[in-house]
Amino acid sequence: MQVIKDHYIYKFSKENVPVAHASDGETLRFLTRDCFNCQITSEEQTMETIDFEACNPATGPVYVDGAMPGDVLAVDILDIAVAGSGVMAAVKGFGVLSERGVSRTKILEVRDGYVRFNDVVFPAVPMIGVIGTAPDEKPVISGYSFSCGGNMDSRKITKGTTVYLPVRVPGALLAMGDVHAAMGDGEVCETGVEINADILVRVRVIKDFRLNWPVTETPDEWFVNTNGVNCDTAILRGYEELLRLVSDAYGWDTTDTTMYLSLQARVEANQAVLDPNETDDEGPVFRTGVPKLAAKPRLIP
Amino acid sequence: MQVIKDHYIYKFSKENVPVAHASDGETLRFLTRDCFNCQITSEEQTMETIDFEACNPATGPVYVDGAMPGDVLAVDILDIAVAGSGVMAAVKGFGVLSERGVSRTKILEVRDGYVRFNDVVFPAVPMIGVIGTAPDEKPVISGYSFSCGGNMDSRKITKGTTVYLPVRVPGALLAMGDVHAAMGDGEVCETGVEINADILVRVRVIKDFRLNWPVTETPDEWFVNTNGVNCDTAILRGYEELLRLVSDAYGWDTTDTTMYLSLQARVEANQAVLDPNETDDEGPVFRTGVPKLAAKPRLIP
Protein backbone atom coordinates (compact mmCIF):
# COMPACT_ATOMS: atom_id res chain seq x y z
CA MET A 1 0.00 0.00 0.00
CA GLN A 2 1.25 3.46 -0.82
CA VAL A 3 2.02 5.64 2.20
CA ILE A 4 1.82 9.38 1.51
CA LYS A 5 4.06 11.22 3.95
CA ASP A 6 6.74 13.87 4.44
CA HIS A 7 5.36 16.12 1.70
CA TYR A 8 3.08 18.93 2.76
CA ILE A 9 1.21 21.69 1.01
CA TYR A 10 0.14 24.98 2.58
CA LYS A 11 -2.04 26.01 -0.32
CA PHE A 12 -4.50 24.05 -2.45
CA SER A 13 -3.27 24.91 -5.94
CA LYS A 14 -3.31 23.52 -9.47
CA GLU A 15 0.42 24.31 -9.54
CA ASN A 16 1.25 21.82 -6.79
CA VAL A 17 3.40 18.92 -7.99
CA PRO A 18 1.89 15.51 -7.15
CA VAL A 19 3.96 13.40 -4.78
CA ALA A 20 2.24 10.17 -5.78
CA HIS A 21 -0.22 8.70 -8.25
CA ALA A 22 -3.19 6.56 -7.24
CA SER A 23 -5.55 4.51 -9.33
CA ASP A 24 -9.33 4.60 -9.15
CA GLY A 25 -10.31 2.38 -6.20
CA GLU A 26 -6.87 2.36 -4.59
CA THR A 27 -6.43 2.36 -0.81
CA LEU A 28 -3.84 4.80 0.57
CA ARG A 29 -2.36 5.83 3.89
CA PHE A 30 -1.72 9.49 4.65
CA LEU A 31 0.56 10.36 7.57
CA THR A 32 -0.39 13.81 8.78
CA ARG A 33 1.03 16.35 11.23
CA ASP A 34 -0.99 18.40 13.68
CA CYS A 35 -2.25 21.81 12.57
CA PHE A 36 0.62 23.53 14.38
CA ASN A 37 3.08 21.46 12.37
CA CYS A 38 4.35 20.11 15.71
CA GLN A 39 5.64 23.55 16.74
CA ILE A 40 3.97 23.38 20.16
CA THR A 41 5.58 20.80 22.41
CA SER A 42 4.78 21.96 25.94
CA GLU A 43 2.05 23.67 27.92
CA GLU A 44 4.42 26.55 28.66
CA GLN A 45 4.35 27.50 24.98
CA THR A 46 1.35 29.56 23.83
CA MET A 47 0.15 29.93 20.26
CA GLU A 48 1.66 33.41 19.92
CA THR A 49 5.12 31.83 19.73
CA ILE A 50 4.65 29.84 16.53
CA ASP A 51 5.04 30.56 12.83
CA PHE A 52 1.50 30.70 11.40
CA GLU A 53 2.81 30.41 7.85
CA ALA A 54 3.88 26.87 8.74
CA CYS A 55 0.47 25.84 10.11
CA ASN A 56 -2.13 23.53 8.60
CA PRO A 57 0.21 21.29 6.60
CA ALA A 58 -1.78 18.99 4.31
CA THR A 59 -0.04 15.80 3.26
CA GLY A 60 0.11 15.33 -0.53
CA PRO A 61 -1.07 16.09 -3.09
CA VAL A 62 -1.94 12.81 -4.77
CA TYR A 63 -2.82 12.62 -8.46
CA VAL A 64 -5.74 10.24 -8.91
CA ASP A 65 -5.56 8.66 -12.35
CA GLY A 66 -8.64 9.22 -14.44
CA ALA A 67 -10.05 12.07 -12.36
CA MET A 68 -10.80 14.96 -14.66
CA PRO A 69 -12.54 18.33 -14.31
CA GLY A 70 -16.29 17.76 -14.05
CA ASP A 71 -15.87 14.52 -12.10
CA VAL A 72 -16.24 13.90 -8.38
CA LEU A 73 -13.59 12.30 -6.19
CA ALA A 74 -15.09 10.04 -3.51
CA VAL A 75 -12.82 9.57 -0.50
CA ASP A 76 -13.94 6.75 1.79
CA ILE A 77 -12.53 7.32 5.28
CA LEU A 78 -11.64 3.79 6.38
CA ASP A 79 -9.71 4.60 9.54
CA ILE A 80 -8.05 7.44 11.46
CA ALA A 81 -5.43 6.42 14.02
CA VAL A 82 -4.18 9.25 16.23
CA ALA A 83 -1.09 9.77 18.37
CA GLY A 84 -1.15 9.37 22.15
CA SER A 85 -1.52 13.05 22.89
CA GLY A 86 -2.64 16.24 21.19
CA VAL A 87 -2.33 19.96 21.68
CA MET A 88 -5.07 22.47 22.34
CA ALA A 89 -4.40 26.19 22.46
CA ALA A 90 -6.53 29.21 23.29
CA VAL A 91 -5.12 32.57 22.39
CA LYS A 92 -6.49 36.03 23.02
CA GLY A 93 -8.03 37.35 19.81
CA PHE A 94 -8.83 33.95 18.29
CA GLY A 95 -12.41 32.76 18.36
CA VAL A 96 -15.77 34.22 19.26
CA LEU A 97 -15.23 34.21 23.04
CA SER A 98 -11.54 35.02 22.88
CA GLU A 99 -11.64 38.47 24.43
CA ARG A 100 -12.96 37.02 27.67
CA GLY A 101 -10.02 34.74 28.50
CA VAL A 102 -6.26 34.45 28.39
CA SER A 103 -3.81 32.56 26.19
CA ARG A 104 -3.38 28.97 27.38
CA THR A 105 -2.02 25.69 26.02
CA LYS A 106 -2.98 22.19 27.12
CA ILE A 107 -1.37 18.92 26.14
CA LEU A 108 -4.25 16.42 26.23
CA GLU A 109 -3.74 12.70 26.52
CA VAL A 110 -5.72 10.43 24.22
CA ARG A 111 -5.87 6.96 25.72
CA ASP A 112 -8.01 3.92 24.88
CA GLY A 113 -10.25 6.07 22.75
CA TYR A 114 -10.89 8.74 25.36
CA VAL A 115 -9.76 12.32 25.87
CA ARG A 116 -9.23 13.75 29.36
CA PHE A 117 -9.89 17.48 29.85
CA ASN A 118 -9.31 18.56 33.46
CA ASP A 119 -11.33 15.94 35.34
CA VAL A 120 -13.78 15.28 32.49
CA VAL A 121 -13.30 12.26 30.24
CA PHE A 122 -15.12 11.94 26.92
CA PRO A 123 -14.78 9.79 23.80
CA ALA A 124 -12.23 10.73 21.14
CA VAL A 125 -13.87 10.97 17.72
CA PRO A 126 -10.95 11.54 15.36
CA MET A 127 -11.86 13.67 12.34
CA ILE A 128 -10.03 15.17 9.39
CA GLY A 129 -9.99 18.98 9.55
CA VAL A 130 -8.36 19.72 6.19
CA ILE A 131 -9.18 17.66 3.10
CA GLY A 132 -9.56 18.89 -0.44
CA THR A 133 -8.75 18.89 -4.11
CA ALA A 134 -7.11 21.69 -6.07
CA PRO A 135 -9.09 24.66 -7.37
CA ASP A 136 -8.83 25.63 -11.04
CA GLU A 137 -8.55 29.27 -10.09
CA LYS A 138 -6.30 31.06 -7.61
CA PRO A 139 -4.69 28.99 -4.83
CA VAL A 140 -6.40 28.76 -1.43
CA ILE A 141 -4.33 28.53 1.75
CA SER A 142 -4.87 25.32 3.67
CA GLY A 143 -6.23 27.19 6.68
CA TYR A 144 -9.30 28.25 4.67
CA SER A 145 -12.24 26.33 3.30
CA PHE A 146 -13.51 26.69 -0.24
CA SER A 147 -15.67 24.95 -2.84
CA CYS A 148 -13.26 21.99 -3.18
CA GLY A 149 -12.86 21.45 0.57
CA GLY A 150 -9.86 22.70 2.52
CA ASN A 151 -10.16 23.49 6.21
CA MET A 152 -13.81 22.41 6.56
CA ASP A 153 -13.32 21.20 10.15
CA SER A 154 -16.37 18.98 9.94
CA ARG A 155 -16.98 16.50 12.75
CA LYS A 156 -18.73 14.35 10.14
CA ILE A 157 -15.47 13.61 8.29
CA THR A 158 -14.57 10.64 10.40
CA LYS A 159 -14.15 6.88 10.13
CA GLY A 160 -17.00 5.32 8.19
CA THR A 161 -18.00 8.36 6.14
CA THR A 162 -17.34 9.30 2.54
CA VAL A 163 -16.34 12.77 1.39
CA TYR A 164 -17.26 13.69 -2.18
CA LEU A 165 -15.04 16.45 -3.56
CA PRO A 166 -15.49 18.33 -6.82
CA VAL A 167 -12.64 17.65 -9.27
CA ARG A 168 -11.51 20.88 -10.95
CA VAL A 169 -8.07 19.91 -12.27
CA PRO A 170 -6.67 16.72 -13.88
CA GLY A 171 -5.84 14.17 -11.18
CA ALA A 172 -7.85 16.08 -8.55
CA LEU A 173 -4.67 16.67 -6.44
CA LEU A 174 -5.98 15.32 -3.13
CA ALA A 175 -4.34 16.40 0.13
CA MET A 176 -5.34 16.16 3.79
CA GLY A 177 -4.22 16.93 7.33
CA ASP A 178 -5.25 18.80 10.50
CA VAL A 179 -6.73 15.81 12.31
CA HIS A 180 -8.48 16.41 15.64
CA ALA A 181 -8.95 13.73 18.28
CA ALA A 182 -12.03 15.76 19.25
CA MET A 183 -13.57 19.04 18.13
CA GLY A 184 -16.81 20.81 18.90
CA ASP A 185 -19.05 22.52 16.39
CA GLY A 186 -17.87 26.04 15.91
CA GLU A 187 -14.43 25.30 17.33
CA VAL A 188 -15.00 28.15 19.76
CA CYS A 189 -11.34 28.88 20.53
CA GLU A 190 -10.24 27.89 16.99
CA THR A 191 -8.52 24.67 18.06
CA GLY A 192 -9.58 21.12 18.85
CA VAL A 193 -7.31 18.37 20.13
CA GLU A 194 -4.71 18.93 17.38
CA ILE A 195 -2.86 15.69 16.73
CA ASN A 196 -0.62 13.70 14.39
CA ALA A 197 -2.46 10.92 12.57
CA ASP A 198 -2.34 7.95 10.24
CA ILE A 199 -5.32 8.01 7.90
CA LEU A 200 -6.51 5.11 5.74
CA VAL A 201 -8.68 6.08 2.75
CA ARG A 202 -9.94 4.64 -0.50
CA VAL A 203 -10.28 6.97 -3.49
CA ARG A 204 -12.91 6.50 -6.18
CA VAL A 205 -13.63 8.52 -9.30
CA ILE A 206 -17.26 9.29 -10.16
CA LYS A 207 -17.37 10.45 -13.76
CA ASP A 208 -19.34 13.43 -14.95
CA PHE A 209 -21.25 14.40 -11.84
CA ARG A 210 -21.63 18.03 -10.87
CA LEU A 211 -20.98 19.16 -7.33
CA ASN A 212 -20.73 22.82 -6.39
CA TRP A 213 -19.54 22.02 -2.85
CA PRO A 214 -18.07 19.05 -1.00
CA VAL A 215 -20.67 16.59 0.25
CA THR A 216 -20.21 14.18 3.16
CA GLU A 217 -22.18 10.95 3.39
CA THR A 218 -22.54 9.39 6.82
CA PRO A 219 -24.33 6.08 7.43
CA ASP A 220 -27.55 8.06 7.94
CA GLU A 221 -27.25 11.44 6.31
CA TRP A 222 -25.85 13.60 3.52
CA PHE A 223 -24.17 16.88 4.35
CA VAL A 224 -23.27 19.72 2.01
CA ASN A 225 -20.20 21.55 3.32
CA THR A 226 -20.57 25.17 2.33
CA ASN A 227 -19.08 28.37 3.63
CA GLY A 228 -19.75 32.09 3.43
CA VAL A 229 -18.82 35.44 4.92
CA ASN A 230 -21.53 34.84 7.48
CA CYS A 231 -23.56 31.87 8.64
CA ASP A 232 -26.75 32.94 6.87
CA THR A 233 -24.92 32.91 3.54
CA ALA A 234 -23.35 29.54 4.23
CA ILE A 235 -26.72 28.03 5.16
CA LEU A 236 -28.45 29.44 2.09
CA ARG A 237 -25.72 28.01 -0.15
CA GLY A 238 -26.26 24.64 1.46
CA TYR A 239 -29.99 24.74 0.88
CA GLU A 240 -29.46 25.76 -2.74
CA GLU A 241 -27.12 22.83 -3.40
CA LEU A 242 -29.45 20.42 -1.62
CA LEU A 243 -32.37 21.75 -3.63
CA ARG A 244 -30.52 20.92 -6.84
CA LEU A 245 -29.31 17.48 -5.70
CA VAL A 246 -32.61 16.35 -4.18
CA SER A 247 -34.66 17.68 -7.07
CA ASP A 248 -32.45 15.79 -9.55
CA ALA A 249 -32.37 12.57 -7.51
CA TYR A 250 -36.08 12.44 -6.72
CA GLY A 251 -37.47 13.94 -9.90
CA TRP A 252 -39.45 16.60 -8.03
CA ASP A 253 -40.06 20.20 -9.01
CA THR A 254 -38.63 23.11 -7.05
CA THR A 255 -41.69 23.57 -4.86
CA ASP A 256 -42.03 19.94 -3.80
CA THR A 257 -38.29 19.75 -3.17
CA THR A 258 -38.37 22.90 -1.05
CA MET A 259 -41.28 21.50 0.96
CA TYR A 260 -39.40 18.24 1.48
CA LEU A 261 -36.31 20.11 2.68
CA SER A 262 -38.58 21.98 5.09
CA LEU A 263 -39.40 18.59 6.63
CA GLN A 264 -36.14 16.69 6.37
CA ALA A 265 -33.16 19.03 6.01
CA ARG A 266 -30.79 19.48 8.93
CA VAL A 267 -28.36 22.30 9.67
CA GLU A 268 -25.22 21.95 11.75
CA ALA A 269 -22.18 24.16 12.10
CA ASN A 270 -18.54 23.34 11.56
CA GLN A 271 -16.82 26.65 12.03
CA ALA A 272 -18.55 29.66 13.46
CA VAL A 273 -15.58 31.46 14.87
CA LEU A 274 -14.15 33.76 12.29
CA ASP A 275 -14.10 37.52 12.14
CA PRO A 276 -17.48 38.68 10.85
CA ASN A 277 -15.67 41.51 9.07
CA GLU A 278 -13.89 39.10 6.77
CA THR A 279 -14.93 39.93 3.25
CA ASP A 280 -13.74 36.94 1.28
CA ASP A 281 -14.69 33.29 1.26
CA GLU A 282 -12.93 32.39 4.46
CA GLY A 283 -16.09 32.78 6.47
CA PRO A 284 -17.73 30.26 8.74
CA VAL A 285 -18.32 26.82 7.39
CA PHE A 286 -21.69 25.22 7.72
CA ARG A 287 -23.02 21.95 6.60
CA THR A 288 -26.62 21.32 5.74
CA GLY A 289 -27.89 17.84 5.30
CA VAL A 290 -30.80 15.74 4.21
CA PRO A 291 -31.20 12.30 5.75
CA LYS A 292 -30.52 9.40 3.49
CA LEU A 293 -33.68 7.45 2.78
CA ALA A 294 -33.90 3.75 2.04
CA ALA A 295 -35.32 2.70 -1.32
CA LYS A 296 -34.90 6.11 -2.89
CA PRO A 297 -32.38 7.27 -5.47
CA ARG A 298 -29.00 8.19 -4.03
CA LEU A 299 -28.07 11.85 -4.24
CA ILE A 300 -24.70 10.91 -5.75
CA PRO A 301 -24.28 7.70 -7.78
CA MET B 1 -55.92 15.56 35.35
CA GLN B 2 -56.48 19.12 34.18
CA VAL B 3 -56.97 19.52 30.44
CA ILE B 4 -56.05 22.94 29.09
CA LYS B 5 -58.06 23.64 25.94
CA ASP B 6 -60.22 26.09 24.00
CA HIS B 7 -58.31 29.13 25.23
CA TYR B 8 -55.63 30.50 22.98
CA ILE B 9 -53.19 33.37 23.13
CA TYR B 10 -51.62 35.09 20.15
CA LYS B 11 -49.13 37.07 22.20
CA PHE B 12 -46.99 36.09 25.18
CA SER B 13 -47.86 38.85 27.62
CA LYS B 14 -47.88 39.52 31.35
CA GLU B 15 -51.40 40.91 30.80
CA ASN B 16 -52.82 37.53 29.72
CA VAL B 17 -55.39 36.14 32.15
CA PRO B 18 -54.58 32.59 33.28
CA VAL B 19 -57.12 29.97 32.24
CA ALA B 20 -55.97 27.47 34.87
CA HIS B 21 -53.69 27.09 37.87
CA ALA B 22 -51.23 24.23 38.28
CA SER B 23 -49.17 23.18 41.26
CA ASP B 24 -45.43 22.45 41.25
CA GLY B 25 -45.04 18.89 39.93
CA GLU B 26 -48.51 18.67 38.38
CA THR B 27 -49.13 16.79 35.14
CA LEU B 28 -51.30 18.58 32.58
CA ARG B 29 -52.74 17.99 29.12
CA PHE B 30 -52.73 20.77 26.54
CA LEU B 31 -54.95 20.38 23.48
CA THR B 32 -53.46 22.47 20.69
CA ARG B 33 -54.53 23.57 17.21
CA ASP B 34 -52.29 23.63 14.16
CA CYS B 35 -50.37 26.83 13.40
CA PHE B 36 -52.97 27.85 10.80
CA ASN B 37 -55.67 27.61 13.48
CA CYS B 38 -57.33 24.99 11.26
CA GLN B 39 -58.02 27.56 8.54
CA ILE B 40 -56.58 25.33 5.80
CA THR B 41 -58.77 22.31 5.13
CA SER B 42 -57.93 21.29 1.55
CA GLU B 43 -55.04 21.19 -0.87
CA GLU B 44 -56.87 23.65 -3.11
CA GLN B 45 -56.45 26.33 -0.47
CA THR B 46 -53.08 28.10 -0.40
CA MET B 47 -51.64 30.03 2.50
CA GLU B 48 -52.47 33.41 0.91
CA THR B 49 -56.15 32.82 1.71
CA ILE B 50 -55.88 32.73 5.49
CA ASP B 51 -55.93 35.33 8.25
CA PHE B 52 -52.37 35.54 9.57
CA GLU B 53 -53.52 37.38 12.69
CA ALA B 54 -55.26 34.16 13.71
CA CYS B 55 -52.18 31.97 13.26
CA ASN B 56 -49.97 30.34 15.87
CA PRO B 57 -52.57 29.94 18.62
CA ALA B 58 -50.92 28.85 21.88
CA THR B 59 -53.13 27.05 24.36
CA GLY B 60 -53.18 28.64 27.81
CA PRO B 61 -51.77 30.41 29.67
CA VAL B 62 -51.44 28.39 32.86
CA TYR B 63 -50.41 30.00 36.15
CA VAL B 64 -47.96 27.70 37.94
CA ASP B 65 -48.25 28.21 41.66
CA GLY B 66 -45.01 29.20 43.32
CA ALA B 67 -43.23 30.24 40.14
CA MET B 68 -41.82 33.71 40.65
CA PRO B 69 -39.53 36.02 38.67
CA GLY B 70 -35.95 34.71 38.92
CA ASP B 71 -37.07 31.07 38.94
CA VAL B 72 -37.02 28.56 36.12
CA LEU B 73 -40.02 26.57 34.93
CA ALA B 74 -39.10 23.03 33.90
CA VAL B 75 -41.56 21.47 31.47
CA ASP B 76 -41.09 17.72 31.04
CA ILE B 77 -42.56 16.65 27.69
CA LEU B 78 -44.13 13.30 28.55
CA ASP B 79 -46.03 12.68 25.33
CA ILE B 80 -47.25 14.36 22.13
CA ALA B 81 -50.14 12.65 20.35
CA VAL B 82 -50.96 14.09 16.93
CA ALA B 83 -54.00 13.99 14.66
CA GLY B 84 -54.21 11.67 11.65
CA SER B 85 -53.21 14.29 9.13
CA GLY B 86 -51.45 17.63 8.98
CA VAL B 87 -51.10 20.54 6.61
CA MET B 88 -47.99 21.80 4.89
CA ALA B 89 -47.96 24.96 2.81
CA ALA B 90 -45.37 26.65 0.65
CA VAL B 91 -46.08 30.19 -0.42
CA LYS B 92 -44.14 32.50 -2.67
CA GLY B 93 -42.23 34.98 -0.54
CA PHE B 94 -41.99 32.79 2.57
CA GLY B 95 -38.69 31.10 3.30
CA VAL B 96 -35.18 31.25 1.95
CA LEU B 97 -35.91 29.37 -1.29
CA SER B 98 -39.38 30.80 -1.77
CA GLU B 99 -38.72 32.85 -4.87
CA ARG B 100 -37.87 29.71 -6.81
CA GLY B 101 -41.20 27.92 -6.48
CA VAL B 102 -44.93 28.43 -6.45
CA SER B 103 -47.58 28.43 -3.70
CA ARG B 104 -48.72 24.90 -2.87
CA THR B 105 -50.58 23.12 -0.08
CA LYS B 106 -50.35 19.46 0.85
CA ILE B 107 -52.46 17.53 3.32
CA LEU B 108 -50.10 14.87 4.67
CA GLU B 109 -51.29 11.71 6.34
CA VAL B 110 -49.63 10.65 9.59
CA ARG B 111 -50.22 6.95 10.11
CA ASP B 112 -48.63 4.46 12.51
CA GLY B 113 -45.91 6.96 13.33
CA TYR B 114 -44.92 7.71 9.74
CA VAL B 115 -45.43 10.62 7.39
CA ARG B 116 -45.85 10.10 3.64
CA PHE B 117 -44.54 12.84 1.32
CA ASN B 118 -45.11 11.97 -2.35
CA ASP B 119 -43.69 8.45 -2.50
CA VAL B 120 -41.27 8.92 0.40
CA VAL B 121 -42.17 7.68 3.87
CA PHE B 122 -40.28 8.80 6.96
CA PRO B 123 -40.84 8.69 10.73
CA ALA B 124 -43.03 11.29 12.38
CA VAL B 125 -41.21 12.98 15.26
CA PRO B 126 -43.85 15.22 16.82
CA MET B 127 -42.42 18.39 18.35
CA ILE B 128 -43.78 21.53 19.98
CA GLY B 129 -43.13 24.62 17.86
CA VAL B 130 -44.43 27.29 20.25
CA ILE B 131 -43.83 27.03 23.99
CA GLY B 132 -43.05 29.81 26.40
CA THR B 133 -43.67 31.87 29.48
CA ALA B 134 -44.66 35.53 29.60
CA PRO B 135 -42.11 38.33 29.28
CA ASP B 136 -42.01 41.08 31.88
CA GLU B 137 -41.66 43.69 29.18
CA LYS B 138 -43.68 44.29 26.00
CA PRO B 139 -45.77 41.42 24.62
CA VAL B 140 -44.30 39.15 21.93
CA ILE B 141 -46.55 37.68 19.24
CA SER B 142 -46.70 33.90 19.29
CA GLY B 143 -45.16 33.64 15.82
CA TYR B 144 -41.87 35.01 17.16
CA SER B 145 -39.27 33.60 19.49
CA PHE B 146 -37.77 35.49 22.39
CA SER B 147 -35.83 35.00 25.60
CA CYS B 148 -38.72 33.16 27.33
CA GLY B 149 -39.42 30.83 24.39
CA GLY B 150 -42.23 31.41 21.91
CA ASN B 151 -41.97 30.09 18.36
CA MET B 152 -38.61 28.34 18.82
CA ASP B 153 -39.50 25.56 16.38
CA SER B 154 -36.89 23.26 17.85
CA ARG B 155 -36.89 19.61 16.78
CA LYS B 156 -35.44 18.85 20.21
CA ILE B 157 -38.67 19.80 22.02
CA THR B 158 -40.21 16.39 21.71
CA LYS B 159 -41.30 13.47 23.89
CA GLY B 160 -38.67 12.66 26.50
CA THR B 161 -37.03 16.08 26.70
CA THR B 162 -37.32 18.85 29.26
CA VAL B 163 -37.62 22.52 28.38
CA TYR B 164 -36.35 24.98 31.00
CA LEU B 165 -37.96 28.40 30.62
CA PRO B 166 -37.03 31.59 32.45
CA VAL B 167 -39.80 32.82 34.73
CA ARG B 168 -40.25 36.58 34.42
CA VAL B 169 -43.74 37.09 35.88
CA PRO B 170 -45.60 35.53 38.84
CA GLY B 171 -47.02 32.14 37.81
CA ALA B 172 -44.84 32.00 34.68
CA LEU B 173 -47.96 31.98 32.42
CA LEU B 174 -47.10 28.90 30.36
CA ALA B 175 -48.68 28.41 26.94
CA MET B 176 -47.92 26.11 24.01
CA GLY B 177 -49.05 25.13 20.52
CA ASP B 178 -47.88 24.84 16.89
CA VAL B 179 -47.07 21.14 16.99
CA HIS B 180 -45.41 19.60 13.92
CA ALA B 181 -45.56 15.90 13.10
CA ALA B 182 -42.22 16.52 11.37
CA MET B 183 -40.06 19.56 10.70
CA GLY B 184 -36.59 20.06 9.27
CA ASP B 185 -33.95 22.37 10.65
CA GLY B 186 -34.43 25.78 9.17
CA GLU B 187 -38.02 25.05 8.17
CA VAL B 188 -37.07 26.07 4.64
CA CYS B 189 -40.57 26.95 3.42
CA GLU B 190 -41.64 28.14 6.90
CA THR B 191 -43.98 25.23 7.56
CA GLY B 192 -43.63 21.65 8.79
CA VAL B 193 -46.43 19.11 9.03
CA GLU B 194 -48.72 21.47 10.93
CA ILE B 195 -51.09 19.45 13.07
CA ASN B 196 -53.53 19.41 16.00
CA ALA B 197 -52.15 17.70 19.07
CA ASP B 198 -52.70 16.46 22.60
CA ILE B 199 -49.64 17.18 24.73
CA LEU B 200 -48.88 15.67 28.13
CA VAL B 201 -46.43 17.64 30.29
CA ARG B 202 -45.29 17.90 33.90
CA VAL B 203 -44.38 21.33 35.25
CA ARG B 204 -41.75 21.85 37.93
CA VAL B 205 -40.51 25.03 39.56
CA ILE B 206 -36.77 25.46 40.09
CA LYS B 207 -36.25 28.27 42.57
CA ASP B 208 -33.70 31.03 42.11
CA PHE B 209 -31.80 29.86 39.06
CA ARG B 210 -30.82 32.33 36.38
CA LEU B 211 -31.44 31.54 32.73
CA ASN B 212 -31.06 34.15 30.02
CA TRP B 213 -32.57 31.86 27.35
CA PRO B 214 -34.65 28.70 27.24
CA VAL B 215 -32.61 25.51 27.58
CA THR B 216 -33.64 22.06 26.35
CA GLU B 217 -32.32 18.90 27.93
CA THR B 218 -32.43 15.74 25.83
CA PRO B 219 -31.30 12.34 27.12
CA ASP B 220 -27.80 13.14 25.81
CA GLU B 221 -27.41 16.88 25.44
CA TRP B 222 -28.23 20.37 26.63
CA PHE B 223 -29.33 22.99 24.12
CA VAL B 224 -29.58 26.73 24.59
CA ASN B 225 -32.33 28.14 22.36
CA THR B 226 -31.25 31.61 21.34
CA ASN B 227 -32.17 33.88 18.48
CA GLY B 228 -30.85 36.97 16.76
CA VAL B 229 -31.24 39.16 13.71
CA ASN B 230 -28.81 36.83 11.96
CA CYS B 231 -27.44 33.39 12.63
CA ASP B 232 -24.01 34.61 13.74
CA THR B 233 -25.62 36.65 16.51
CA ALA B 234 -27.83 33.75 17.59
CA ILE B 235 -24.84 31.41 17.75
CA LEU B 236 -22.72 33.86 19.74
CA ARG B 237 -25.54 34.34 22.24
CA GLY B 238 -25.71 30.57 22.66
CA TYR B 239 -21.99 30.28 23.30
CA GLU B 240 -22.15 33.12 25.82
CA GLU B 241 -24.94 31.44 27.78
CA LEU B 242 -23.19 28.06 27.64
CA LEU B 243 -19.97 29.69 28.82
CA ARG B 244 -21.78 31.02 31.89
CA LEU B 245 -23.65 27.77 32.65
CA VAL B 246 -20.70 25.43 32.11
CA SER B 247 -18.28 27.68 33.99
CA ASP B 248 -20.68 27.79 36.97
CA ALA B 249 -21.44 24.06 36.91
CA TYR B 250 -17.86 22.85 36.48
CA GLY B 251 -16.06 25.53 38.48
CA TRP B 252 -13.73 26.40 35.61
CA ASP B 253 -12.43 29.80 34.61
CA THR B 254 -13.40 31.48 31.35
CA THR B 255 -10.42 30.17 29.39
CA ASP B 256 -10.80 26.53 30.40
CA THR B 257 -14.54 26.71 29.76
CA THR B 258 -14.00 28.24 26.33
CA MET B 259 -11.52 25.48 25.48
CA TYR B 260 -13.96 22.84 26.65
CA LEU B 261 -16.73 24.34 24.49
CA SER B 262 -14.29 24.24 21.58
CA LEU B 263 -14.18 20.45 22.07
CA GLN B 264 -17.70 19.60 23.11
CA ALA B 265 -20.20 22.27 22.05
CA ARG B 266 -22.59 21.57 19.21
CA VAL B 267 -24.49 23.98 16.98
CA GLU B 268 -27.74 23.19 15.24
CA ALA B 269 -30.36 25.40 13.64
CA ASN B 270 -34.05 25.64 14.31
CA GLN B 271 -35.16 28.49 12.13
CA ALA B 272 -33.00 29.94 9.41
CA VAL B 273 -35.67 31.24 7.13
CA LEU B 274 -36.52 34.76 8.05
CA ASP B 275 -35.88 37.97 6.22
CA PRO B 276 -32.28 39.02 6.90
CA ASN B 277 -33.45 42.63 6.83
CA GLU B 278 -35.52 42.13 9.96
CA THR B 279 -34.16 44.45 12.59
CA ASP B 280 -35.75 43.21 15.76
CA ASP B 281 -35.48 39.99 17.72
CA GLU B 282 -37.54 37.90 15.38
CA GLY B 283 -34.45 36.62 13.61
CA PRO B 284 -33.42 33.04 13.07
CA VAL B 285 -33.44 30.77 16.03
CA PHE B 286 -30.44 28.66 16.76
CA ARG B 287 -29.66 26.26 19.47
CA THR B 288 -26.20 25.54 20.73
CA GLY B 289 -25.53 22.65 23.01
CA VAL B 290 -23.02 20.93 25.16
CA PRO B 291 -23.33 17.19 25.65
CA LYS B 292 -24.43 16.06 29.04
CA LEU B 293 -21.67 14.22 30.83
CA ALA B 294 -22.09 11.50 33.37
CA ALA B 295 -20.68 12.08 36.86
CA LYS B 296 -20.40 15.82 36.42
CA PRO B 297 -22.53 18.57 37.90
CA ARG B 298 -25.75 19.21 36.03
CA LEU B 299 -25.98 22.53 34.25
CA ILE B 300 -29.37 23.15 35.86
CA PRO B 301 -30.27 21.60 39.23
What report would you give on this structure?
The structure is a homodimer of 301-residue chains. By secondary structure, chain A is mostly beta strands. Helix content of chain A is 10%, strand content 37%. Chain A contains 2 helices and 22 strands. Chain A has helices spanning 231-250, 254-264, and strands at 2-4, 8-9, 11-12, 20-22, 27-32, 58-64, 72-82, 85-90, 104-111, 114-117, 120-123, 127-132, 140-141, 145-146, 149-151, 162-166, 174-180, 197-206, 215-217, 221-227, 266-269, 285-291. In chain A, strands 1-5-18-7-16-19-20-22-21 form a 9-stranded mixed β-sheet. In chain A, a hairpin with a 2-residue loop joins strand 10 and strand 11. In chain A, helix 1 (231-250) packs across helix 2 (254-264). The interface between A and B is large, with 61 and 61 residues.
Primary descriptors:
seven-stranded mixed β-sheet; nine-stranded mixed β-sheet; 301 residues; homodimer; mainly beta
Overall mean pLDDT score of chain A?
Answer: 90
What distance separates the N and C termini of chain A?
Answer: 27 Å
Structural class of chain A: mainly beta
Shape, principal axes of CA atoms of chain A: globular
Strand order of the largest sheet of chain A: 1-5-18-7-16-19-20-22-21
SSE order and pairing:
2 copies of one chain form a homodimer.
Chain A: E1 2-4, E2 8-9, E3 11-12, E4 20-22, E5 27-32, E6 58-64, E7 72-82, E8 85-90, E9 104-111, E10 114-117, E11 120-123, E12 127-132, E13 140-141, E14 145-146, E15 149-151, E16 162-166, E17 174-180, E18 197-206, E19 215-217, E20 221-227, H1 231-250, H2 254-264, E21 266-269, E22 285-291
Parallel strand pairs in A: 1-5, 4-6
Antiparallel strand pairs in A: 2-6, 3-13, 5-18, 6-17, 7-16, 7-18, 8-9, 9-10, 10-11, 12-15, 12-17, 14-15, 16-19, 19-20, 20-22, 21-22
